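dumping this here so i dont lose it
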């Protein structure tokens, strides 16, 4: 369940205005919201690694609703996507493209399993025969230099059962080169969260009126609402030049982090 952006904005404004400490505009709020959402999203990875080390040392609670590693993993579920890549004959690369400006287009953050699907009965490009049984196979991701070495060796040459690929940047987009060439390619990815937007319409008095139709909620789990508010307030203190806000928000954020990791 996502975090409602209007709830966060109104909470931030209430806290700022309660002590007459200032005001932030929708454009300022949207910029801070994007920054904070990205910071929280990025924090899942080092936090997950830290907790996983505790798991390996048998020091991590493993009850149903109090396993921190599982909780962090759960927060990443909304960003997991199985994306279909498109093959370009001209470039010989597989790419995830957005030619029609699809609003649901995902920006890839990390690549997981790469699945090569082989439907046809022929494989070209090798001077010797290989197994051509139709199948779906997990594809090993290698560096470009390793890829070039491996496909040239008869002993280590990729097959349909053990395909190989490397990733590169082609026309400012992520591209994969896979060998043997599959008929289709599915890639399990972690996508970046969509940019949060507090949309508005001008009121009769020139005030900002919330517009749900032009707004985009935070894609983070609802459990992150408190963290979002606290961290936005921290940056608000910089904008309105109030060190007491920065200090209070920073202390609250630090205590929350300690509680979550202890």
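and the seq i came up w/
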């Amino acid at each position: 369940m996502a975090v409602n952006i209007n709830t966060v904005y109104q909470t931030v404004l209430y806290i700022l205005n309660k002590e007459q400490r200032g005001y932030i505009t929708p454009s300022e709020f949207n910029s801070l919201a994007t920054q904070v959402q990205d910071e929280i999203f990025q924090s899942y990875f080092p936090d997950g690694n830290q907790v996983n080390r505790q798991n390996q040392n048998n020091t991590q609670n493993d009850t149903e609703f109090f396993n921190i590693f599982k909780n962090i993993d759960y927060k990443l579920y909304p960003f997991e996507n199985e994306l279909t890549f498109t093959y370009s004959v001209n470039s010989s690369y597989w790419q995830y493209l957005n030619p029609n400006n699809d609003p649901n287009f995902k920006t890839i953050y990390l690549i997981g399993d790469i699945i090569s699907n082989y439907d046809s009965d022929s494989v070209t490009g090798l001077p010797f025969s290989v197994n051509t049984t139709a199948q779906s196979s997990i594809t090993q991701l290698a560096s470009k230099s390793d890829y070039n070495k491996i496909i040239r060796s008869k002993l280590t040459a990729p097959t349909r059962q053990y395909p190989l690929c490397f990733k590169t940047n082609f026309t400012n987009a992520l591209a994969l080169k896979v060998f043997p060439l599959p008929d289709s390619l599915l890639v399990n990815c972690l996508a970046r969260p969509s940019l949060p937007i507090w949309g508005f319409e001008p009121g009769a008095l020139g005030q900002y009126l919330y517009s749900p139709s032009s707004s985009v909620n935070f894609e983070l789990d609802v459990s992150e609402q408190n963290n979002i508010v606290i961290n936005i307030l921290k940056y608000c203190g910089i904008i309105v030049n109030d060190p007491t806000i920065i200090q209070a928000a920073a202390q609250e954020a630090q205590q929350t982090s300690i509680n979550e990791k202890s």
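The two ends are 25 Å apart (CA to CA).
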